[in-house]
User: What shape does this take?
Amino acid sequence: MVLRRQPVLARVDAGLEPAEPAPQPEVGAYLDGLVADLEWTPRSGDHLALELDVGLPSFVPLLARGHDLDDYLFPIVSRLGTIRFDAVFAVKRRGIRSTIRVGPAVAADRPPPEPPVSVLTTADATSIDWKEQVHEACRAVTPAPAPPGGVAVELRFTLSRRRNWAALWQPALDSLGPILGVPDPTRPFRADDSRVTELALHRRLDDTLGHRVLVEAWWHPDR
Assistant: This one.
């Protein structure tokens, strides 16, 4: 579906784990219109996937800070119901139109390769320690960040159904400094996630994990 309005950004402060975002009035109006356009209802289903294609005008640098894909996705998924989604995808590109598609989540034809990064986090997800665990797992397998330019990133979170998995997207991306680079060395847990031009986020449920979260990551330069 072509969006009648361009996607709206809404940054949620790192470390918070709200059930819903706290959007600004213009974000609320945008989400109200999107819900109406999708004809979204409580019966719209579960185990869903969402794909968002963000078209950016020519005067906006593709890798500009402040146009992070998770910031486009978070308010939409939170409004539609985080618990209902098993996978969400987003891309950003040059264009005058943006589109969205929602449908049943479908298993891939073949399993993905072994993730270069796999870490079972044990710290509180709202803490710096959680980010440090993910950061150190990335640093252990990559000697240097990806070459300059866009990067495609795929993250899989295995966690209890009691967790709000969308609240982990931003902390996880912030922790990918060894992969994406860090603009300010004094802030090692603020990775340059504006470089992410393709983002895939997956959820697997495992209630035996309790408060722990298994985070797995794949990445490659954007082609």
